[in-house]
Amino acid sequence: MIWMDKADLNSQAGMEHAMEGYFSSLADGGDGTFNGMVAAMPERCDYAERTLTLRVDTQTWMENPNAVLHGGVAAAILDIAMGALCRYFSGGGMTPTVSMSVNYLHPVPVGGPVYVTARLPMHGRTLCHAAGRIWTGDAPDRTLCSATAVYHTGHQER
What we know:
The protein is α+β, with helices and mostly antiparallel strands.
């Protein structure tokens, strides 16, 4: 599934348009998918820096028994952001996760917004390396969870 126009691939405005459209379609889908239920929305993206920041309004269904964000949900939120960024810079095709390593540094609160910032340190012909971090609006310099991941980009040329 291509989720952007080819014209969106080479500019800041195009990246903003593509990300807004993609995440709006997930949230509005109403199909009950996990990504749709998370309802992440873009806060900002930077084409030149190859970064994407999403906002996720956490809800009680995302909690673990200790009333903080479940580790699997934290990993999924990081994967959603990093995967979307890899997918964008790969031309819109599927970019399945090859491997991912998550560091749970501090508990992530539930009941308010959290943010995830993804960046692409390396994008090659068949693999894309990404990094991400989760933080809260009241402590943007404090990383609660971090991750690195590798995504398969196929043979799509940019």
